[in-house]
Amino acid sequence: MNKRATIGDVARLAGVSTATVSRAIHTPDVVSESTREAVQSAISETGFTLNIAARTLRQQRANAVLVLVPDIGNTFFSEILAGIEKVASARGQTILIGDTAGDRAREERFLSYLVNGRADGALLLNGHLPAGVRGAVVSVSEALEPQEVPHVGIDNAAASALAVRHLKAAGHRRIAHLSGPQNNILTRQRIEGFLAEAGPDAPVIPGAFTIASGRAAADAVLALDPRPTAVACANDEMAIGLIAGLAAQGVRVPQDISVIGFDDIAFAEATIPALTTICQPRLAIGERAMTRLISAIEGTAEAGAEILDVELVERASVAPPA
Amino acid sequence: MNKRATIGDVARLAGVSTATVSRAIHTPDVVSESTREAVQSAISETGFTLNIAARTLRQQRANAVLVLVPDIGNTFFSEILAGIEKVASARGQTILIGDTAGDRAREERFLSYLVNGRADGALLLNGHLPAGVRGAVVSVSEALEPQEVPHVGIDNAAASALAVRHLKAAGHRRIAHLSGPQNNILTRQRIEGFLAEAGPDAPVIPGAFTIASGRAAADAVLALDPRPTAVACANDEMAIGLIAGLAAQGVRVPQDISVIGFDDIAFAEATIPALTTICQPRLAIGERAMTRLISAIEGTAEAGAEILDVELVERASVAPPA
DNA sequence: TGCGCTCATGTAATCGTTTACATAAGAATG
DNA sequence: CATTCTTATGTAAACGATTACATGAGCGCA
To answer: Which residues have CB under 8 Å from B56's CB, separation 6+?
Structure first.
């Protein structure tokens, strides 16, 4: 197994210098047609591929970005990732996915990519930015609280209020909110939007964005007095868990209680009943975020938040109250 | 914003050579205690971090591996990934996740990491290896067909047969199989195991491993004559889709038809009814796969397949026939 | 004392690119 | 014909680490 071909091998075969080979590859228009062809055939003959480490070292630029997600198995994030990848590959960027799994140590480990030169910038979907991170950064979906960092996402409060308005339009008056984990910015924003539309005294049940927490919340919902006729959940996983939990107690959705979700994950249309929910433009969010990150890396960044529109998708989990 | 500190800056500050700094970092026991401390404090004073590109270039080793998955949003893969990451971080390896999304061009693009030096080896979860891939490779979950490549996974035929045996034990005699996409090795192996246990003439309905294909298969199931009393699905997504599709036609699971899944994804316990299914040891699969890949990279590989045990998890989607 | 050994450290080559600068050959201009 | 301007290419210095080899100090032993 002979070693990998280097740019020097190509140069020798084509009878030119390594500089010319490099130019033939990256700026083909500055070399003459004949040498360009000679280099091309030498490349294919040797099977040459650029050594990325060497390029990165020389250019002081990795052409790679870190994408930090809290849970990669969550389809919500993977669809944003698809948008990110789309523009990344179009712009010659590699993406390095880091799944923090809610672990600060892992988060730090991935963020070290920024300083050790593995990545030129980072897309943060985890709602958290440790102090002292230098370099190009864009927060996605979950805004960073104190920091002034470019952001791409939706208006969570407005979307949450939209869900409540939908329930009110169906005739509901006693509406509860199943919220996310405390200290999470999405949780706070969605609670805020809920209370604004449902009234400041409407009940808020704590959850954790998980199926299990939704299931567990069934008891809390049924214990409410007066019992709500509808529940607006801060994400779909909890809505699905809640429906299962209610069913286990013989409470039917939507006949006895209506449920609305948030996010429109893939399973939302496959549950029984199919879940009415708020759909975020995930692909577009990913695309815009990556586009802005590249600008930030190239120093042409515009600061500020970019807010995209959501859509309410009606399925079968909401009905008029009994 | 001053530039990043290099090993030379550290050396100057500590009053030693760059070689000594490198040794103090990687082989601390060969430098004297005093210089080790001097280097340490110089490192923290300068905030020095190793430039990965430089190390990779010099060592001709990236200390990174590519993980090729067909769909990263599928929790089945993300849990295997967790196992992979666990041993990767313990062994100082970085993992680069590539989501092929079933696209051969993307697959090629990611596999080029092996030749351009970005990765030292690859874990293939996508069941496909283009010709001419050189280097350390381990196939995971989906065995590669013609190639002789180290493999870690389960015995799909045996697991499929296990599902059928469970249905038979519940009293079912007319059992159908909802299979995956054609030309997929998992599909073939699971069909094989199904037929071995259900009989060579038992009906096999084509699917595509997606929720939508499961839902669509409801018609085909109900059109079967005689109508089956149970359906063994080749994965959970299709099982969940099928249950939804049957419900839409007023057919109840498990009262009218029993359904069993395969994989035990997170949503399997949250569906109504909760899904009885086959659970693969995903974490262990990921751990073993990464361990073997590191061996392969270091040249101490043992070839051959490594088969782990599955477990049947009983929930509520299987009942005796009416 | 002189020899050889160990231990800690330094010197400098090396990995494979990119790119500033130099150069040489024509072409265009006066 | 001398001069300047293009155009295509070559030369060689980076980039920041690792590591084979050299060196020199200190020690033990005959």
So the answer is: A53, B62, B63, B117
For every one of its 322 residues, what pLDDT tens digit does chain B have, with 9 covering 90 and above? 356 899 999 999 999 999 999 999 999 999 999 999 999 999 999 999 999 999 999 999 999 999 999 888 888 898 899 999 999 999 999 999 999 988 899 999 999 999 999 999 999 998 888 877 777 999 999 888 766 789 999 999 999 999 999 999 999 999 999 999 998 899 999 999 999 999 999 999 999 999 899 999 999 999 999 999 999 999 999 999 999 899 889 999 999 999 999 999 888 988 889 999 999 999 999 999 999 999 999 988 777 899 999 999 999 999 999 8
Which ranges of A91-210 would DSSP assign to H, the alpha helix? Answer: 104-115, 156-169, 185-198
Q: Please state, in angstroms and rounded to a whole number, the distance separating the CA atoms of residues B106 and B101.
A: 8
Q: Return the nearest residue to C9, CA–C1'.
A: B20
Cβ neighbours for A149, distance < 8 A, ≥ 6 positions apart: A124, A129, A137, A138, A139
Strand partners, A175: A230
Give the end-to-end CA distance of chain A in Å, rounded to a whole number.
Answer: 75
Q: Strand D: which residues 33-52 of B lie within 7 A (CB)?
A: 48-51
Give yes or no for CB of A292 within 7 Å of strand D. no
Name the region of A96 (left: φ>0; alpha: ψ -120 to 50; beta: rest): beta
pTM summary value? 0.90
A207: tokens are 């959850």
Q: Is A223 exposed, middle or buried (0-12, 13-18, 19+ CB in 10 A)?
A: exposed
Determine contact: B272 vs chain A, CB below 8 A: yes
Q: What share of chain B is helix, strand, coil (3-state, %, to 5)?
A: 45, 15, 40
A47 Cβ contact list (under 8 Å, min separation 6): A5
* Cβ–Cβ under 8 Å, residues B152 and B288: yes
Tell me if residue A138 falls in helix, strand or coil: strand
